Automatic annotation (TrEMBL):
GO terms for cellular component: endoplasmic reticulum membrane; endoplasmic reticulum-Golgi intermediate compartment. It is found in: Endoplasmic reticulum membrane. This is Surfeit locus protein 4. Keywords: Endoplasmic reticulum, Membrane, Protein transport, Transmembrane, Transmembrane helix, Transport. It comes from Menidia menidia (Atlantic silverside).
């Protein structure tokens, strides 16, 4: 799989990863009045500040997506999108909704992996002194990104007593642990991509709901958020788990 897709996988991963920001930025444009009125009514902040909030989300998200896809100032774009996630978490009261908070953290994990990919490797703090791989900030970013990404799957576990749910939870939990500790990482991440893709298309089929119904927007939001997490996992498949992982330690054994 990697031999066939190695030239295209990183680009596909980036496109999937920024899809939720792209969709949300476009939604800010087409639902400008609704978004502004919601923020104004919720926070009592006035027309001007509500307008600034919507404008910041629109420019920040679309601008960040353009920079990431064009591979220009990727680090600044990632920090900007981190700020958008934090701003929306507070503005839309996601902080008190555990499911949406976990999904936002998973989305942040994908950005952390993208930030790690954009960092140049092999830089030493002092000229002529080799830097230790274990202390590389990039490797710890990859570890943090992997751990945050798999949080998404905690929202997909079903606590039912039937056999299928128990089996699904056991397999899912095993794959989550493998990705988090970095053991057989690429294979486990690819399996999670296929699993999450099937769940996303089946449960978040927003195209089957008329656009005027509120459920259409909810499913569309979930669909693109899940697609972004898939993008993060594809980055793990393409780039590997990094130095802080069982796969890397096995090479020393």
């Amino acid at each position: 799989f990697l031999r066939v897709t190695k030239q295209y996988l990183p680009h596909l991963a980036r496109l999937c990863l920024i899809s939720t920001f792209l969709e949300d930025g476009i939604r800010m444009w087409f639902q400008w009045n609704e978004q502004r009125d919601y923020i104004e009514a919720t926070w009592n902040c006035g027309y001007f500040l509500a307008t600034c909030f919507v404008l910041l989300n629109l420019i920040g998200q679309l601008g960040g997506c353009v920079l990431i896809l064009s591979r220009n100032f990727v680090q600044y774009a990632c920090f900007g999108l981190f700020g958008i996630i934090a701003l929306q978490t507070v503005a839309y009261s996601i902080l008190w909704d555990l499911k949406f908070l976990i999904r936002n953290l998973a989305l942040g994990g994908g950005l952390l992996l993208l930030l790690a990919e954009s960092r140049s490797e092999g830089k030493s703090m002092f000229a002529g002194v080799p830097s230790m791989g274990e202390s590389s900030p990039k490797q710890y970013m990859q570890l943090g990104g992997r751990v945050l990404l798999v949080l998404m799957f905690m929202t997909l576990l079903h606590f039912d007593s039937n056999f299928f749910s128990i089996l699904q939870n056991m397999v899912g939990t095993a794959l989550i642990i493998l990705v988090a500790i970095g053991f057989k990482t690429k294979l486990a991440a690819l399996t999670l991509v296929l699993w999450l893709l099937a769940i996303n298309v089946y449960f978040n089929a927003f195209w089957t709901i008329p656009a005027y119904k509120p459920m259409h927007d909810f499913l569309k939001y979930d669909f693109f958020q899940t697609t972004s997490v898939i993008g993060g996992l594809l980055l793990v498949v393409a780039l590997g788990p990094g130095g802080v992982s069982m796969d890397e330690k096995k090479k020393e054994w």
